């Protein structure tokens, strides 16, 4: 029975960390830190729940299900499961997350030298996606190319930036914005959504499992164990990066108080601390972080859609890569504004799906529990998406009066009540099991 060597397991963890450390992980923590001010660590805790905890539990759930989303969504039926999976893959793939990796890396690493006009962005995105597509076309070599070579360089650059943020802060921790004074934890919790990592974990599960199997590991229990270890390594790395970036943002009021996003905060800090040469450090961090995430997303989409449709893996990678190139030229602010309603709508479904999957041994017949609870989560996901898009007039006032609705968590209590009711009915009806008979 083939087992991974210690060095391969560490490389797998590094690869998993690099897959997750992308655009959102770089741009949102400094923004949260600056807005949270003296409430930074409470907000950071909320952010870590959705930005680290949810992806970790999602990878565990995916590993237990065999690495594919099909098994995870089986209790809600093939049609509903496929629709959910396709929506998630498109959202974290060519529609939002993958193009965002190119746009963020350009704005932070290249635009300070080339200017932020359309032509430099187009040239950069063409070169960027050429490399991403090249790496994604060889999924069996991801551990070697990403885990053993690219990630160590990324970690070294992050270490320099992180140590500087802790030892050479730009100033004192600033004051909190109004929203963070009243509800810092829930604000951080909701901002963690925007990293897309919990949704990313739903698609990265297949990449991690395949990378393990490509090393000759065939035992399902070992695949699960190695996936969990890799997720733990990634979670530790992400937590350390986030905490330093929160502190960086919280202490940068004096130099970047007028910044509109995390890109500007981080860029201003690097120039302030390292001078002109700091731009090179930032360009290395951002480009490698974003590129590894883009490779993972493109690989995952290739694996999923080539299995779902009568098209080859190579064709999916090339088409989605080129589509992402086109979308990336729409600009960062526009991409974020369009993606937020979709992400806010998908997250309740993703959280509920993972939570129910982790508790699957409690259910006699999983569909009896999954279907009603996911249906309620879907209703509230649609409500949250419409609200985030600015069409609050379309939403009945009742939804805004629910507990935690003001913090964007109005779905939580109805979902929990539905879960208790569905679990009770499941026990009353009894029998099934052997895979829900």
Provide a descriptive summary of the structure in words:
The protein has 437 residues and is mainly α. The chain has 2 domains: 6-339, Hydantoin permease (Orthogonal Bundle), CATH 1.10.4160; 359-437, no CATH class. It has 20 helices and no strands. It has helices at 6-20, 23-36, 40-64, 69-72, 78-95, 97-114, 118-136, 142-167, 178-182, 184-193, 197-213, 220-250, 253-256, 262-274, 278-308, 313-328, 332-358, 366-388, 397-400, 412-429. The longest helix has 31 residues, at 220-250. The mean pLDDT is 86.
Descriptive terms for the model:
single chain; 437 residues; mainly alpha; Hydantoin permease; 20 helices
Layout of helices and strands, plus pairs?
Blueprint: H1 6-20, H2 23-36, H3 40-64, H4 69-72, H5 78-95, H6 97-114, H7 118-136, H8 142-167, H9 178-182, H10 184-193, H11 197-213, H12 220-250, H13 253-256, H14 262-274, H15 278-308, H16 313-328, H17 332-358, H18 366-388, H19 397-400, H20 412-429
Helix pairs in contact: 1-8, 1-11, 1-12, 1-15, 2-3, 2-12, 2-14, 3-10, 3-11, 3-12, 3-17, 5-15, 6-7, 6-15, 6-16, 6-17, 7-15, 7-16, 8-12, 8-15, 11-12, 11-15, 14-15, 15-16, 17-18, 18-20
